[in-house]
Amino acid sequence: MRHLKVSRRGLLTAGALGAAASTTALARPALAGPPTAYTWSNVEIVGGGFVPGIVFNQSEPGLVYARTDIGGAYRWNAGTSRWVPLLDWVDWDHWGWTGVASLATDTADPDRVYLAVGTYTNDWDPGTGAVLRSRDRGRTWQATELPFKLGGNMPGRGMGERLAVDPHRNENIYLGTPSGNGLWRSTNSGVTWSQVDSFPNPGTYRADPNDTSGYSNDLQGVLWVLFDPRTGGRRRKTQDIYVGVADKANPLYRSTDGGATWSAVPGTPTGFLPHKGVLEHEGGQLYLATSDTGGPYDGGGGQVQRLDLATGVWTDVTPENSGWGYSGLTVDRQNPDTVMVATQIAWWPDVVFFRSTDRGATWTRAWDWGAWPDRVKRYDLDITDAPWLTWNATPALPEEAPKLGWMTESLEIDPFDSDRLLYGTGATIYGTRNLTDWDAGATVHFAVTARGLEETAVLDLISPPAGAHLLSAVGDVGGFVHHDFAHPGLMYANPTHGSTTSLDFAGTAAAVIVRVGNPTSGTRFGISRDGGTTWSPAATQPDGITGGGRIAVSADGGSVLWSPDGAPVCRSTDDGATWTAVTGLPAQAGVEADRVNPSVFYAFSGGVFYASSDGGASFAPTAATGLPADGDVRFKALPGVAGDVWLAGGKTGLAYGLWHSVDGGTTFRRIPAVQEADNIGFGKAAPRSAYPALFSSAKVRGVRGIFRSDDGGAHWIRVNDDRHQYAWTGAAITGDPRVHGRVYVSTNGRGIILGEPC
């Protein structure tokens, strides 16, 4: 499956870069009174996104971290067998810091951990990159902002690690950077940074030099740094340092004087990019896994090379030249002759892991070809913790569901346990505790090892008054019916969507639920009349559709309004058997249904609010004025009250806030206490209150956060705190109509957040 993340492309403008790296305090807004007491957790999906990096500490058993491309970083908790999120404190203004470009854990002081953060190097992210440093394993952080951007979600993000800490003099840290910025160094444990002027090569490789967006044409830069610990000591910094560079002609550099001078390593094989480098210091061997592209979605050729550091002799130890590149690379520190490598990408029929116990002289495969189309496997695969990993598929052999992996750029043997291996894919982490059974011809048991790691971009949420408490629209993994928040929900099927973009339920017939999205199979529209237990796809769909867009269903469930990408707004009264273009609306208008009157629909586009009284067949603009004409706008009709509509959105510097209408959108009143609002949701009314609770990701009295109002918007209380900010939370929010105070919050990378009043 191609793993695409939701970027906030077009919503933000580029900010100015600073002139030099400097330490800054992490912003903490002043509260107008303390937040209301809530507990925060995930509605579990388990995994859901690309894990490009897994990093074991080399001196403390059991200490391991994982980084994700947009969903932050995690530390493994062996006591609970769960990953602990480390960046939930990142606030709205620093949302780009949840893209983790690299991670380093300190061998000399295992309490120290470092993150290089920043999601995009082009103008999709207005901020600059930063290095975050912690002295307590990620419980608290300090930040040094950099005078350039980093790209946790850019092409080539599976290569690395770009950050490295000197194992002897741990105040010395190196950072390889993209965009032509070269190699950087800190000599005071990450407090300040400066460019290593003597490093000669900032990289030459671009994924697509003709791309004008700034995304695929960026230089992928300096990729990783390795220290040879044999060349340093207690009072002497490491002298021999190796650096991989995204340059097919000059991929490897070395310093033998502690980073003062640098030169290309003689004889280094050329023609490929050095995705991974691993230095096995006991035997003095440096391994490279290379590919012809930076990945993570492509790669059609590559090699595995071994350098004997004592003799300077290179040996080609490539397992197979079969039309794929190599990336995931690891050495067994307990048995240094043992090395493993993964195909960087092998969409069909599956990734291949190779294992050697003789330094790459011979290899065995995780699976071999049997009698066509069967495969003979050395492993089995347990997806109990994330059963959705089949994507409802039953492919023809030799493909299987679930796959062993794809985008397998993180592959790590525990340095203290030869039987333990963890590896990341485009959607999860797998692990095993009996890896050495491979060598005896027994079955290696891989299982999902991603509990606690939630990395999905959530696009929409609904909480009906009956049936399942929550249904979600999720990027890359479709979406789920959630009955039990502690386990993955039931993935939508018939049709299966790669990304569900919008959901709705009928206001007076809540078992009727509609959804639209981007299919892996079938059509873009599905309808359920039993609360999401079963689904029926549309028999047809309008011509010209390029994306799922938005969907709305009438209060009685009898008619559906669909605003797809790439086509006009359409209407169906027969569950999608036929579609008719509506009149009076621009394409891509936002659409919603009145929750009481089945004849009434609403729409919004370009600052104009529209209403329909004929079941969505035709629309006319209302007299409403003063609404935001630019920026994202989301609006909803209140359950149980005809004509009651709330609208949130806008853009900084223009109209931006929260508006309320009680006359079906004819007029709107702005809520004065709310300076900015990006979404609106409804929940069960507070005791002794007749009006539903309101929820919004908003700025109220100068404070950004998740807010609730129990009196129709007159007063607002912040329900989250500074430790639980989750970066960008603007896509969707809803309360639970059955539990007062409960709120479900979408994130762009940290999954679905559940807030419960204490």
Structure report:
- This protein has 758 residues and is an all-beta fold.
- The protein has three domains: 37-448, YVTN repeat-like/Quinoprotein amine dehydrogenase (Methylamine Dehydrogenase, Chain H); 456-621, 7 Propeller (Methylamine Dehydrogenase, Chain H), CATH 2.130.10; 650-758, no CATH class.
- 0% of the residues lie in helices and 37% in strands.
- A hairpin with a 7-residue loop joins strand 44 and strand 45.
- The protein is globular, with a radius of gyration of 27 Å.
Mean of pLDDT:
94
What composes the largest sheet?
Answer: 5 strands, antiparallel
Radius of gyration from the alpha-carbon trace, in angstroms: 27 Å
Shape: globular
What is the distance, rounded to the nearest whole angstrom, between the alpha carbons of the first and last residues?
40 Å
Secondary-structure arrangement, i.e. CATH architecture of the largest domain: 7 Propeller
Q: How much helix, percentage-wise, in residues?
A: under 10%
Strand content: 35-45%
| Structure summary, number of beta strands | 61
Class inferred from helices and paired strands? mainly beta
The CATH H-level superfamily of the largest domain is YVTN repeat-like/Quinoprotein amine dehydrogenase
Number of domains: 3
What is the CATH class name of the largest domain?
Answer: Mainly Beta
Low-confidence stretches: 1-33
The CATH topology of the largest domain is given as Methylamine Dehydrogenase, Chain H
How many helix segments? Answer: 0
What order do the strands of the largest sheet run in, or round the barrel if closed?
1-10-9-8-7
